[in-house]
């Protein structure tokens, strides 16, 4: 029996659903994520097994009775910031990956107690050991500073910054700044409002 918590993505645009699943798997790898082309296809599997439903606006409107009873669990996928659905949390999908990630993390920060993006049991607690200097470098990287600016801020050489950056990525098994940002925010190393 699978005991991992689950998200559902319900969107008739399969490419959007797969792209969103890929992004969410990077943000919250401890979750299983199921994709459905419609509300009806999800109902074949059962309905209330999901922590959150990421649903296209059309599917929410077409199945309002179901989703209005699950407003706190439903995140409506919209294509413009000017579109809002009363009482539902919304995420705009027509933005860059980094903007989407920041919006998602802000939404989770607001929606879950004590500023945690997920409950303590859902967050990976084992943290790879980074030195204090590596933590400082990581925080500056996710805040958008370039290597030269980090070197100047920390009064260290540019080569040292590059070495720290390489070591951080290797220790964490991370390959992009977006993934590093997710890691830093999800593990409490950087406040979401600092990025």
The secondary structure category is alpha/beta
Q: What percent of residues adopt helix (DSSP H or I)? A: 40-55%
Contiguous helical run count = 9
| Strand composition percent | 5-15%
**SSE run:** EHEHEHHEEHHHHH
Terminal CA distance reads 38 Å
- Poorly predicted ranges: 113-126
Strand order in the largest sheet: 2-1-3-4-5
Rounded Rg: 19 Å
Number of strands: 5
Mean pLDDT: 83
Summarize the main sheet. Answer: 5 strands, parallel
Please describe what this structure looks like.
The protein has 195 residues and is α/β, with parallel strands linked by helices. The protein contains 9 helices and 5 strands. It has a 5-stranded parallel beta sheet. α1 links the parallel β1 and β2. The longest helix has 15 residues. About 7% of the residues have low confidence.
Record keyword descriptors for this entry.
elongated; 47% helix; 9 helices; 195 residues
Which secondary structure elements does this structure contain, and how are they paired or packed?
Layout: E1 6-10, H1 14-27, E2 32-36, H2 39-45, E3 52-56, H3 57-62, H4 64-68, E4 74-78, E5 89-92, H5 97-111, H6 132-142, H7 147-154, H8 158-172, H9 177-186
Helix pairs in contact: 5-9, 6-8, 6-9, 7-8
Short description:
This protein has 195 residues and is of the alpha/beta class. The protein is 47% helix and 12% strand.
